[in-house]
Amino acid sequence: VQLQASGGGLVQVGDSLRLSCAASVRIYSSTVMGWFRQAPGKEREFVARIRRGSGTSYYSDSVKGRFTISRDNAKNTLYLQMNSLKPEDTAVYFCAADYQGSWSSRPSEYELWGQGTQVTVSS
Questions:
Q1: Separation of alpha carbons 2 and 95, rounded Å
Q2: 54, 55, 58, 59: CA torsion to nearest 10
Q3: Are 48 and 58 in contact (CB under 8 A)?
Q4: Distance of CA 71 to the CA centre of its chain
Q5: H-helix segments, the chain
Q6: pLDDT in tens, 29-87
Q7: What are the φ/ψ torsions at residue 89 (nearest 5 degrees)?
Q8: Whether 89 contacts 121, CB under 8 Å
């Protein structure tokens, strides 16, 4: 497995979770890595992305100010810290790697995907 996401679970409104995405060295060296999510019956949605070199990050409007994407280069691991969770954050969360560095929010620009981890926020 080249991308392994973990850390999902069932939480209450306002709680926090931290997702992790462990990657092989080759995958982790990709220029851009991102998090996406997909709720039942909906299309896959961009959440956040981060550039390897500069650490520059970008967020969707729906999570800006609540979620933080980061990467630990020593551990080849990508993280998504999620605070102040809302019921609308309920989804399967995926990490993905963009080798070309397109810096895009489109899922089609990411070449490799992890298997997803379920996040459920209960009210």
A1: 11
A2: 180
A3: yes
A4: 11
A5: 25-28
A6: 778 999 999 999 999 999 999 998 788 999 999 999 999 999 988 888 999 999 999 99
A7: -85, -5
A8: yes
